[in-house]
Amino acid sequence: MILGLFAVIYGRHRKFAAVVLGWLALATLTAAVLVPLGADLPEPGAVLPTPSSMLVMDKVALGPMTPGLLLAHADSRHAVLAMAPLTLLSVLGLMTLLDFARSRGSRAAIWVVLVAAAGFSTSKFLHSYFHDYPKVAAPYFAYGTDQLFEDIEKLSKPGAPVFITGSLNQGYIYLLFLEQYPPSALGSLVIQQKNTLFGSVDRLDRYHFYVDNGLFKFLPVGTFVYGGADDTPSPPVMSIRYPDGKVAYKIVVK
């Protein structure tokens, strides 16, 4: 891509290079005016957009939107319009490099280096995708919900209410899917939903999608699911962990 910048002043593709750079500038401007998700949350050491589970946690206090917080929440989705011009800029760099290479031997050497570099990059990508990415991405994809509902069924008493942390965004969707509720059964279930646009479902059958420690003290029986960072009124009987070992959910049974 650095070599592609030389195509603006050198070679046979200067007009096309100017179009690509203009395209890239416009794509950069659109990304610059968008505020990254969670940029007003004081998350130390953040390098990714904020998981939705963090956005719905009431105990996270909002902070001033400083340049440091903005830079700590890099969100590649905002730069999606730059994918095409960056690719074309890389192609221009290759074409410029080949224009410099006059002999057959020098061109062959360039291709050998490119193939070696591509192989190295591919190996790094595969290691990152299959080894590192699952650990980083787990909180963003509601990791552990299948195990969570499986454990709830095993640990909860028949008919007893189940209270699930609100940090599980739209938790009723996972309940319907993982417990294989037939659509015909929805008409006979008790459903409580907020009467607002995108109103969250607070209750579906015996499942409540919020946790109230006052109810824990009041109710004689019940199953309570807390987030990994939440304090529990009594020691959990089961903890579900992310691939990196951090606790995702804690189950307390009364």
Can you characterise this structure?
The relative contact order is 0.11. A hairpin with a 2-residue loop joins strand 3 and strand 4 (207-208). Helix 2 (14-32) packs antiparallel against helix 5. The chain is an alpha/beta fold. It is 43% helix and 11% strand. It has 3 domains: 2-101, no CATH class; 102-141; 142-253, no CATH class. A 7-stranded mixed beta sheet has the order 2-3-4-1-5-7-6, covered by helices on one side.
Brief summary:
The protein is of the alpha/beta class and 254 residues long.
The structural domain count equals 3
Order of helices and strands: HHHHHHHEHEEEHEEE
Q: Kindly provide the radius of gyration, computed on alpha-carbon positions and rounded to a whole number of angstroms.
A: 26 Å
> What strand order characterises the main sheet?
2-3-4-1-5-7-6
What is the percentage of strand-forming residues?
A: 5-15%
Number of helices: 9
The level of helicity is 40-55%
| Uncertain spans | none
| Number of distinct beta strands | 7
> Structural class, please?
alpha/beta
Bulk shape: elongated
How is the main sheet built? Answer: 7 strands, mixed
In angstroms, what separates the terminal alpha carbons? 60 Å
The chain-level mean pLDDT equals 84
State the main characteristics.
254 residues, alpha/beta, 3 domains, 43% helix
Helix and strand topology:
Blueprint (H helix, E strand, L loop, with lengths): L1 H5 L7 H19 L19 H4 L11 H5 L11 H18 L3 H34 L7 H11 L6 E3 L6 H8 L12 E3 L7 E4 L2 E2 L4 H6 L4 E5 L10 E4 L5 E7 L1
Parallel strand pairs: 1-4, 1-5
Antiparallel strand pairs: 2-3, 3-4, 5-7, 6-7
Helix pairs in contact: 2-5
